[in-house]
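We close this part of the discussion by returning to an individual protein. The sequence in question and its structure tokens are set out directly beneath this paragraph:
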Amino acid sequence: MSETIRVTSGSNMTGKVIITCAITGAIHTPTMSPYLPITPDEIAREALAAAEAGAAILHLHARDPETGKPDQTPEAFAKFLPRIKQNTNAAINITTGGSPYMRVEERVKPAATFKPEVASLNMGSINFGLYHLVDKYKEFKFDWEKPHLEATRDLVFRNSFKDIEYILATCYENGTRFEFECYDIAHLYNLAHFADRGLIKPPFFVQSVFGLLGAIGTHPEDVAHMKRTADRLFGGNYRWSVLGVGSSQLRIAAQAAALGGNIRVGLEDSLWAGKGKLAKSNAEQVLLARKIIEGLGMQVATPDDAREILQLKGGDKVAF
């Protein structure tokens, strides 16, 4: 597959653009924004509002409700997953990335337990730099935050071939499909490797990640290079989506949508809703993404549209 050039590509041929919303993540810490959802109630409320605003897929992490620290135990997810499912038709995506400090066996547990329609899967190891954020804050709300950020000066987020195989083997028989997170060009080749081995099946939902320190940048040519490479490797066998970190979020979303791609927004990826303006909710970012899509003359995909485009198993086949 990796050497085959196809005429078609991962561009959107339906005119319907999938918005994924990543509600809280494990990167930003509570000091950085008072609007970052921490508790199960906050995560559920933010997820439902994002779905109401137009997000077809909700990408979810869990946190300790007392400190805001990332929590990858199934028990933490169980406090909000049923509530979200009962109140929206949006497809739910559970992280297997967790936090860069976690072992893969810990990271995969929620997806293995709850068998979601979608789970994220990082396609390679990377330097994962957050330490440059420390100087932006004079003091931190919780003791864990500053050491958590500073330690990334010497942190490699491990996603080895063995780790990826482990997650695939653990989750694929559950009917879960993957949001393949590609932080660099090499990750696309890693994905092609697994496709060539027959361990994953199309359509591949490729989420290109731009702007994290240690990964590909945010220049328009970086975005175009990701798209060109994915087109060459996967042709019509993939569906492309992008996320831009921080201030690059909406600019990259606009470029990708114009190129036929899908969009991911959310407070996991960016805390902002314009220059110097903190987003007060995930839904605010979803609405900004919606304006881009509709301004380009396209439609926002519904959850059922997303299920058809990505060939998801349906919300009635999850274990929560």
